Amino acid sequence: MFEELYRFIYNLLIGFWAIFPYHDMGLAVIFATIVIKLIIWPVEKKGLHYRRTMQNMQPEMAKIKEKAAGDKMKEYQLVQEMNKKKGVNQLTGGCLPLFIQLPFLFGLFTVFQSWLKHPQYLSEKTYSFIHSLPYVQKTISDPSLFHPSFFGLNISLPGKTGLIFMIFPVVAAFMQYYQTKMLMPKENLDDQQKLMARMNVFFPAMVIAFGYSWPLALSLYWIALSGVGIAEQYIVVKADAEKEEKIIESTAVEVKPKALKAKKAKKKKKKR
Questions:
Q1: Is 84 contained in some domain?
Q2: For 41-50, what is each residue's pLDDT tens digit?
Q3: Rounded to an integer, what distance in angstroms lies between the CA atom of residue 113 and that of residue 216?
Q4: Is the Cβ–Cβ distance between 116 and 6 less than 8 Å?
Q5: How many whole angstroms separate alpha carbon 145 and alpha carbon 117?
Q6: Which of 24, 92, 116, 137 would you call most buried, defined as having the most Cβ atoms within 10 angstroms of its Cβ?
C-alpha cells in the first residue's frame, strides 16, 4: 500500500519535472504539493471548520469550566454534550486530517531521501505514460541529465550544506508557526489548547532541526504546504465569517419585528 503511495508521489514529481521548462525539480515539488493538498482538501476543510468552531466556542468553554468547578469528569461530560449539540466531531475534525497527511509526508521523505538519488528508477518506478514522456526517455538514455535542483540548488542535499540552504528550513518553520497561529484562540484556552500553543513553538523548532539534516526538498515541500494551507485557512475563515454575519443579520431581522410588536402592545395597554 505505502509502496504504491510512494510510487504515485514519485511519478507526480517526475511528471511535472519532465514537462516543465528547464526541468526544475523544485518547481515540480511545489506543484506536486498543490496537487496533494487538493486531493486531501475535503478532509482538511472539515479540520479547518472544526478548529474554527472550537475557536468560536471559547466563551462557552469558559462557562463550562466555571460550572464544573475543577471536576474534570463533569467538565469532560459537559464538553461532550456541547460538541454533540454543535455537531462537532473531534475525530474527523481534529485527528483525521493529521493522520491523512502523515503518509504523504513519509512518502515524500522516502522519495527525496532515496528514490530521487537513483536515476535508474526512471525506468523502474515510472508509470507507462510518464515513462513515455520525451524528456524521461532522453534521461533514461543519458542519466547525467537528471539533476534534482531548484534554480540551481541541489535539493537532495541537506539544509546544513550552506548558508543559502539554511534559509529554507527557517522559512519553512516560520510559515508553519504562522499557519498554526492563525486559528489559535487568543484567550480562555483549555488544557488541550494550552498544549497546542506550546506545540506551536515546538513544531517549528523541529522543522528547523530536521530541515538541516534532511534533503532540502522537504523544506521546500513544507514551505509550499504551509503556503497553500494559509491560503486555504484564509478562504475557510472568510467563508465562515460571512456565514456568521448572515446568521446574525437574519436573527436581527426576526427579532426586530417581535420587539416592535411588543412595544405596540405596551402602548395599547397604557392607552386603556
A1: yes
A2: 877 777 776 7
A3: 10
A4: no
A5: 13
A6: 116
Q: Which cell numbers in the block locate residue 222?
A: 513544507
Q: At 150, which amino acid appears?
A: F
Q: For 98-138, how does the pLDDT look when each residue is reduced to its tens digit (9 = 90+)?
A: 677 778 778 877 888 777 777 788 888 899 999 999 999 99
The identity of residue 253, as a single letter, is V
Q: Does residue 271 lie in a domain region?
A: no
Q: Which of 128, 172, 155 is nearest to 11 (CA)?
A: 128
Measured CA to CA, the distance from residue 182 to residue 101 in angstroms comes to 19
Reported pTM? 0.73
* Residue 63 within any structural domain of the chain: yes
| Amino acid found at 268 | K
Within-domain flag for 101: yes
In the block, cell 469532560 appears at: 76
The amino acid occupying position 66 is E
Dist CA 96 CA 90 (whole Å):
9
Task: From residue 152, give the alpha-carbon distance in Å to each of 27, 51, 75, 135, 171.
Answer: 12, 39, 56, 19, 19
- Are 116 and 148 in contact by the 8 Å Cβ rule? The answer is yes
CA distance 14 to 125: 10
Residue 210 grid coordinates: 530536521
Range of 126-135, 146-155, 256-265 with top mean pLDDT = 126-135
Give the range of the structural domain holding residue 93, as residue numbers without chain letter.
Answer: 2-265
Phi/psi class of residue 134: alpha, beta or left (left: φ > 0; alpha: ψ in -120 to 50)?
A: alpha
Torsion of CA 206, 210, 212, 213, to 10 degrees: 150
Total count of domains within the chain: 1
- Distance of alpha carbon 130 from alpha carbon 8, whole angstroms: 11
